[in-house]
Amino acid sequence: MVAGCIAQVVTRIFAIYLHIVTEKEIVYANGATMQSMLDNKNGRCLIIEPGIGYREEKQKYSLITNYSLLAPESTRPHIVSWDNRYERAKKLLEECLMIVLVTEKLFQFLKLFVKKVCGQRGFLSYIL
After folding, report:
1. If you count Cβ atoms within 10 Å of the first and of the last residue's Cβ in the chain, which end, N or C, has fewer?
2. Per DSSP, what are the bridge partners of residue 49?
């Protein structure tokens, strides 16, 4: 019940932020820079870059970086050549996601196999 309530609150907050960025111009404060990312466990993500815009996406994961994701060319002159943390993190997440997907499929197969071989009351069916 609590989880459902929290999910409703997060959904409402997401809707409020989405409404704000679609209705208002988001700008930088004088002398400050910022980017914002709001996401939930279902992969819904809102990236906000003041003065540039916003993007709503639904992915397995989302990353944010020091440079603009919405207008990368605008920040390219400020990126040092050795700073590839975003690219490395993205590659690592993609590799981990593949491992998780394969593991989930193997686990599903194992559960079906145990059920078929051991039946409903088999020992392994209790732990799987």
Report:
1. N
2. 53
